[in-house]
Amino acid sequence: MGHLGAKEAIDRLAERLDHLHVRAPLAPALRGILSELYTPAEAEVVAAMPGVPSPLGAVARASARTEPELGALLEGLCRKGLVIDLWSARQNAHLYSPSPFVVGVFEFTMMRSAPDDDHRRRAALFQEYWQELMAANFGPERRVALARTLPHEAALPEGSVEVLDYERASDLVGQARRFSVGLCSCRHEKHHLGEKRCSVPLESCTALDHGADYLIRNGLAREISREEMLELVERSRALGLVMNADNVRRRGTFICHCCSCCCNLLLGITRFGCPSTVVTSNFVAAVDPASCDDCGRCVRACPVKAITAGADTAGADAADAAELRPANASREQPAGARGAGCPSVDADVCLGCGVCVTRCTRHALSLERRQRRVLHPENTFERVILMALDRGTLEHLIFDGPNRNAPEFLRGFVGGVLRLGVVQQALLGDRLRSVFLRTITALAGAGGKTATEL
User: Fold this and answer.
1) Which pLDDT score is estimated for 3?
2) Three-state SS across the chain?
3) Domains of the chain, residue spans
4) CA end-to-end span of the chain, whole Å?
5) In CATH, which of 1.10.10.10, 1.10.357.10, 2.30.30.240, 3.90.180.10 is domain 6-99?
6) Res 339 pLDDT > 70
7) Quick one: what percent of the chain has pLDDT higher than 70?
8) 279-369, what's its fold?
9) 363-382, pLDDT tens digit by residue?
10) pLDDT by residue (tens digit) across 228-276?
C-alpha cells in the first residue's frame, strides 16, 4: 500500500478521531493541532487503527505495516500520548487504541514537559479549538458525561444518608493499587495563555491503576504512594477545588483537582455553556436560612456560579445560570434554598461538590441527597459505548476491529437507526441499557471483552 501525502494523512486522521466516542469535528485549529503533533507516518497509522483496543498484530494488518516497523512507531506515539497502550492480562499483551481528543490528545500533550516542545503555540491552538469541541460533545442535548463530581467527604451528611463507596474519594483511593501525579494539562495550558489565576501547583493531575500505569510507563507522570494520593485529596479540600473522576462506578482511572479559572471541564459549563462535561454527584447543596448570615463566602467559593447572593441579585444570577446545567442535573430545588436575604442555590447547576459547605463557617450549608438518583456507567467500556451512542458514532466502534469488513450499507443502516432520537432515548434509558450493553460487548468481539477488564 502506498503511503499518503501529509495533508491526506492529517485529513484521514481527523476523520478517525471524529468517529471515536469523543467527536473531533474538522476545523482549521484541529488541522493545525494534528499537523503539529503527528508526523505523516504517525497520522497514517493512527487513521488506520481500530477504535477498540487491539493487539499489535491487528494494528499491523489494519495499517499494512510489519510488526517490527509498527512496534517502534507505536512506542513513539505512546510516549507522546497519541496512542494508548493498555496491558491485557487476558491476552498477555499490550492493546493499542487511538487517543481520543479528550481525555487523550489534549491532556497527554499538555502533560509533557520536554523543553523543546512549543507549549505556548500548542496552548493557543487548543484554546482556539475548545468551542468547536465543546459544542460537538457536551451541549445540552448530550446525556452521557465524560466525568463525574466527587463530593468532599467533610461536606457529606453523617449517619442518616447512605454514601456509596464510589462516591467517596477515599474509597476510590483505598481500592486502587497504583497512583501517579503529573502536570495538570488545563493549568499548563492556562499558564502559557496567561489565564492561570489560582495558586494551585501545575503538578496536580492524579491517576489510578490502568491510568497511572499508562502515564508512568510513558514518562507522562511520576508514581506516588497511596499516602501521597490521600494528601492531594486533602489539599483539594483545603484549597476549595472540585474533585472530578471519570464517569464510572468501578475501575476509575483519574481524579482531577479542578479550579474555576483553569479546568476545561468547569469552563465548559461556565464559559462555553456546555453542561455535559461533568455529571453531578448524587448530592445537592442546601441552605439553612436560620443559620445563614449572608456573608457571601459560599457565593464566591462556588466554582460553577450555582449560588447567588441574597434576594436582590438571585433573580438575575439565576437567569444567567439557567444555561449552565451539568449533565443529568434534575430540575429540583432543595428545601430551604430560597430564604429571604440568604444565598440561593440553583440545583440544576450545582455539582454537589461540597466546596461551599466546607467554606461556610456558620454550618448553614449542607449536602442533601438528590431526589432523583444519578446513574453512572459501570466501567470505562460502558462509558465509551454510551458516549458513542450519545454522539452518533457507535456504528464506527461496532463495525471496527474484528468487524471492520462489514458491508458499508450495514454500517450506514445501523448508524442511521442509532441516531434516531427515539432509539437513542430508549437505549440510554434504565430499562434497555443493560441489555444493549451486553449485546454491544458480544458484537465487539475479543477487543470488547478485553476492554471490560480495564
Assistant:
1) 64
2) CCCCCHHHHHHHHHHHHHCCCCCCCCCHHHHHHHHHHCCHHHHHHHHHCCCCCECHHHHHHHHCCCHHHHHHHHHHHHHCCCEEEEEECCCCEEEEEECCHHHHHHHHHHCCCCCCCCHHHHHHHHHHHHHHHHHHHCCCCCCCCCEEEECCHHHCCCCCCCCCHHHCHHHHHHHCCCEEEEECHHHHHHHHHCCCCCCCCCEEEEEEHHHHHHHHHCCCCEEECHHHHHHHHHHHHHHCCEEEEECCCCCCCEEEEECCCCCHHHHHHHCCCCHHHEECCCEEEEECCCCCCCCCHHHHHCCCCCEECHHHHHHHHHHHHCCCCCECCCCCCCCCCCCCCCCEECCCCCCCCCHHHHHCCCCCEEEEECCCCCCCCCCHHHHHHHHHHHHCCHHHHHCCHHHCCCCHHHHHHHHHHHCCHHHHHHHHCCCCHHHHHHHHHHHHHHHHHHHCCC
3) 6-99, 147-278, 279-369, 392-451
4) 34
5) 1.10.10.10
6) no
7) 80
8) Alpha-Beta Plaits (3.30.70)
9) 999 999 998 888 898 888 88
10) 999 999 999 999 999 999 999 998 999 999 999 999 999 999 999 998 8
Grid coordinates representing 69?
Answer: 516497523
